[in-house]
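Note to self: keep these together.
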Amino acid sequence: MAYSWINGQGKLVWENIFGHMNIWNAKDRQILRKINTIYQQFGYLYTSDSWKPYLPSGNEQAHTSSWQNNEVSIWNIVSDKEDVASKIDLLVDDDKLQYYELWTGKKLNVSAHKVNLRSI
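Structure:
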């Protein structure tokens, strides 16, 4: 799921593969629901030509991609390690805008043109 998330490409759920059940665990189903909700809300960005893969995050363990238009920017962040995203700051052009962490809905703190993910 991390691969599809960082590339903004979605995920095919195929639970019955020619009679063999490939059942998803509860945690993966919950993650897929969150991803699907974000894709539904911002699908116009994910299907645009604005994809910027592998942006610098200041942390070698965090991989970031971005999509944007004139009004909205989205960063997808993945890592093989837990809690890595909460240890990075994303550089932004306008620190007067409001930034939200879509996974939880929490508002993020901005200072000195950095979105502080440590506030999650």
